[in-house]
Amino acid sequence: MNKYAYQIQGALENRQGQLLGLRVLVCDVYNFESVDAPIEVIDAQTAKYLQFRLSIMAESLNIKNLPVEIQNKIRAPLGRWLDYWVTKNFYGNSQQSKSTNP
Question: What does the pLDDT average to over 24-33?
Fold first, then answer.
């Protein structure tokens, strides 16, 4: 089983303020990386909600301050995407991915 931890650092935006993805720190016992997860990882409604929150906030978006339902809509698909990313980039094998996230 792939054991790793991650922390969402914030949102990635273009110059016009359009949400492009999430910057995530990922680590296991031997590796530590900063990863840019594309916004397509999460569903369109959640992406629209995040885009709205970014447009009304002067500061960066803090995922921990969002409602729990929104956090779950971000973390579950992001976790699945990171399972694949970690297997491919830390272990060099994307054929035997063992999901650590539901």
Answer: 94
